[in-house]
Amino acid sequence: MVNEIFAKFHEVATSPRAQMDKYIAEGKKVVLTAPVYTPGEIIHSMGFVPMGAWGGDVQLDKAKEYCPAFLCSIAQSILELGMDGVYDGASALVIPSLCDTLKTLGQNWKYAVKGIPFIPMTYPQNRKPDYGVKFTRAGYERVIKDLEAIGGVFDNAALAESCKIYNKHNEVMRKVDEVIAKHPEVTAVQRSDVFKSAFFMSAEEHTALVEELIAELEKTPAGEADMGIVVSGILTDAPQLNEIFDEMGMHIVADDVAAQSRQYRTDVPCGDDALQAMAEKFKAMDNCSVLYDVEKKRVQLIADTAKARGAKGVVVVMTKFCDPEEFDYPIIKRVCEAAGIPVALVEVDRQMVQFEQIRTNLETFRDMLSM
Amino acid sequence: MAEEVKKTPRPVDPNSAKYKLGKIASDAYVDAIEAKKQGKPVVWISSNFPVEIPETLGLATVYPENQAAGIAARGAGQRMCEVAEADGYSNDICAYARISLAYAKLRECPEQEVAMPDALLCCNNICNCMIKWYENLALDLNIPLIMLDIPFNPDYDPTPEIVEYVGAQFWDAVHQLEDIFNIKWDDEKFKEVTGFSCTASRAWLDATSEACHIPSPFNGFDLLNHMAVMVTARGKAEAGEAMNVLLKEYKENHATGKSTFREEEKYRIMFEGIACWPYLRVTSRGLRDRGINMVTTIYADAFGFDYNSFDEMIAAYCSVPNSINLEKSRDKRIKLCKANHVEGLLIHNNRSCKLWSGFMAEMGRQVGAECGIPVAHFDGDQADPRNFSEAQYNTRVEGLMEIMEANK
Ligand code: SF4
Ligand code: SF4
């Protein structure tokens, strides 16, 4: 049974296009959402299916007409897939302004990909003071206006409903992370599928499937990983990378990955004004390289999580050319090592075919952790 | 062995704009060091932070980007970058940030010493990289960071919402600084400072637009040096005065048929991007030897902080080159190219600067098409010498020149 559920996650995670076709065939409109954060609740409440567009493992060709080589492969491959027609049929792409590369992605998209409108989501970095919350709200209002232009209908009560659905999804995602931590038989590949599939399914469907998984896993007794690790980074979905984790006997007991747990840490607070509540949610968000944080709470969170989950080490999976993450790395290393938690760094990009270097690094790391 | 003949540099006339501007730029460093000695507060500040704030509050300022450019121009870019890299910073990170973080660690670099800060003033209207860089500085130096967030604007003009958000932050920053340093904001002083800033900006815009004459009365590489004053001192009275001297000189040059471009001006180009500081001479000579004058750059427009109200001032800070969308960026370049009779566009794909280079390919195509001029790109870096090839630069410039010649 549990294997069947994992197979379902795998199928969805590896065939986003089939999922998109399915929704379109059902008469639904799909709105793509770029990294790192986008208001899925709003898109959902306006009658669209939000689908994550975090690029793909493809060689870059057409995108080179627009992007210099030193932009991250996530942004470049989103453009490549757009230019290749892989996203055809989507009604829009929402891109937040959270890093310099994302700012340029929207500008290039307008000219490179005709037919899928770009909707900007401008987030404030000073998101905590009242003026920041007000600006977040203004950003959401802009997104709503653009979604209305492609046939969406905004309604406060519908948004409140979607917020509940998303909060529930957040809750099960946090729960599944905890449960998997205690089930070392779940592979890194399977764990990755659980998280990745969330981008390609409606929140309701994904919640239901994750709940099934949790129920199944909880039928078997919890165990302890021999070598628990915390993984940190933007994206860690490369199958070869996860296979290496499995081969090395490393079990992911927690993650600080933008495409995984960072999405689900913060709920929308209750309130009559659902849009205001959405802005309050962004105010409450923290612990991420693309959210201004002078205290670097994110770094401490990694160290604390590693301790709390009994991890032997932290693996930082660096997406090449991702400067927000590259700036945090020296601090992560410093803080974790001071707390007695070893850190390994592996560099990935979406064009990677040779994983030998990563294997060697992780072998060395494993040997060190086993000592 | 032939005896070495040391060339004595031509003395600079102390009444010239070059002398005055050079002095203002170097005094800024000296003044901050002096302030530090006297126990007065010093801040490190991003180049496009509203300078009206520290000037009104009387805080001594140091511009790490400017310092890094100086260090790179004097040949120490790689050495400093490697210090940061040894601490785990990727060599993909902006070289200015790497140099600055290295300085914060070593607290010395003979190529450009600065006073250490008591607080940091960060503004991300030119890049979000700045946020990460200053976060790390704040952590390493254990000092307060004031962050003024000016988001990238996907629309053509600043919206009332952006202006309101940034305006609120402006006063928040003022109040934070008042608390940190126990100082008081003075509206009269603020008025005076805004006046200085507007005067300097107007003179800068006027001086740079003297390039509309054929031949241009100046070599555009001059602007890369003079610009330092617009970055670091535009809120001071002397900046406006010196810029007006510059304007006068350019006007005189035009009237008397002189120019600081010392060759015959055969071609006129716009240079796009930050200078390659470690190779300033090579890049300049590569143009000059071919009779190519770089008559304009976006810097000509970048420091146009000329405004009539508080909201207009905020809107100006929301409209600096890296915070505006492709269409507005493009139109600004088109305007400069047309006004200055530009015949070719040379683009520096700057490895340090993702935002500046990220949509340059498309923008370059659109500018080229609208102005009917050829466009050439070269790879480089503003401060890390490892990312530039002289041979590639020359080939690209040569290619550009051939098309400009064919277009004549
Ligand atoms: S991987 Fe990093 S650089 Fe690339 S889009 Fe995401 S946050 Fe930006
Ligand atoms: S060079 Fe680019 S990335 Fe570096 S500080 Fe300047 S604007 Fe930011």
Task: Produce a short descriptive summary.
The complex is a heterodimer of chains A (371) and B (408). Chain A is an alpha/beta fold. Helices cover 51% and strands 12% of the residues of chain A.
Textual characterization of the structure:
The complex is a heterodimer of chains A (371) and B (408). Chain A is built from 14 helices and eight strands. By secondary structure, chain A is α/β, with parallel strands linked by helices. Chain A has a four-stranded parallel sheet, with helices on both faces. A four-stranded parallel sheet of chain A has the order 6-5-7-8, sandwiched between helices. With 408 residues, chain B is of the alpha/beta class. Chain B has helices at 17-37, 52-57, 64-73, 77-86, 95-106, 129-141, 160-181, 187-208, 221-233, 237-256, 280-288, 299-302, 310-317, 326-339, 354-358, 360-371, 390-407; strands spanning 42-45, 60-62, 119-123, 145-148, 267-272, 292-297, 344-350, 375-380. In chain B, strand 3, helix 6 and strand 4 form a beta-alpha-beta unit. The longest helix of chain B is centred in the middle third of the chain and has 22 residues, at 160-181. One iron/sulfur cluster is lined by residues 35-36, 72, 74-75, 99, 101-102, 234, 290, 319, 322, 324-325 of chain A.
